[in-house]
Amino acid sequence: MLKLQDIQQAAERLQGQVLRTPCVESRTLSQIVGAQVFLKFENLQFTASFKERGACNRLALLDAEERTRGVVTMSAGNHAQGVAYHAQRLGLRAVIVMPRFTPGVKVERTRGFGAEIVLHGDTLEEARAHAYELAEAQRLTFVHPYDDVAVAAGQGTVALEMLAEQPELDALVVSVGGGGLLAGMALAARSIKPQLEIVGVQAARFPAMVNAIQGTQHPQGTSTIAEGIAVGQPGALTRAVISEQVDDLLLVEEGDIEQAVLMLLEIEKTLVEGAGAAGLAALIRHGARFAGKKVGLVLSGGNIDPLLLAAIIERGMVRSGRLARVRVSARDVPGMLARITAIVAEAGANVEEVHHQRAFTMLAAQNVEIELVLQTRGPEHIEQVLAELRRAQMQAELH
């Protein structure tokens, strides 16, 4: 079983090997969610994830014979990069098994750290089974992403650092997939400050740990923007620790996670992946239970696909009213489009897209329907733009 001593010894091993990331208050987020929010910036690690801690600690514990043979693991993301990077640093052979659907950018990033990449299977489970086969056939040491004492101990060092820097914290809110981070942090934090409230957060589409601990039957989805915690089977070791040490487990929806990613980008100017924003998403969704408390959140990683980030930003602008779709109906005469765009410009909005529709409309034949996507300052500004268009004898509505 995992013990506090394991985590303390891991902290000693990791000195100088991984970054001791800052843990600081976000005054703006605190005002928004009604709790005093402290952020632990694990997205600043070299591979942009806390996963380095567990990987580095596990590799440091290999004996001479194991170091000679090398290691193997299964991962489609941050654990792969953590193992590859620290294996390269320590001069070890590292074989990483990834599912065939793994995005090319993640494959190449991991290969860039000197690892041997094996693409196998259509699911994480198939990749894991193949990794175990390689471990046996080539006598490699398997480094589990989360269900390993040394890995969980490495992750637990996050809590030691947070409580050393912010000893007055009332609660820790930590994302959970397989449970390595939450289990390690919970054991460390509970040992140091027994009265601390410890809460885990899972994506509603992947509620495996919630179901396992709480006995619920929440259905599992097929995808989530928090892919770093999209785990179908929680660890046995981590489940036992979480069951004993964690006060509660919460679920958050995709929209909450999207909003949290965007808030961290806009307010803190920091890039966080979906899994790394789950803690803030929980404060957004379950704000009342944390009101007035000093809450520590772990920004566990920053490896997000640029196209996904672009979609999150655009959808966030729509929700906040800074991107709006407006439909304008007017007489189909020369210069009408120029007149409409001039009115929009004078109202201070910017045209992002224009769609000019004649055929697919129920309007009279001499009329035209124009759909505009506008960049605005918010809902009030949208209403001002619509009012100006109507004042010019045009039918205008939010679409």
How many separate helices? 17
Strand content: 15-25%
Q: Kindly state the number of beta strands.
A: 14
Structural class: alpha/beta
Overall shape = elongated
Helix content: 40-55%
User: Which stretches are poorly predicted, pLDDT < 50 over at least 5 residues?
Assistant: none
The CATH class of the largest domain: Alpha Beta
Cα-atom Rg, whole angstroms? 25 Å
Largest sheet: 6 strands, mixed
Distance between the termini: 58 Å
Q: Indicate the CATH topology of the largest domain.
A: Rossmann fold
Count of domains: 3
CATH architecture of the largest domain: 3-Layer(aba) Sandwich
- The average pLDDT score comes to 93
User: Taking strands numbered 1, 2, ... along the chain, how are they ordered across the largest sheet?
Assistant: 1-2-10-7-8-9
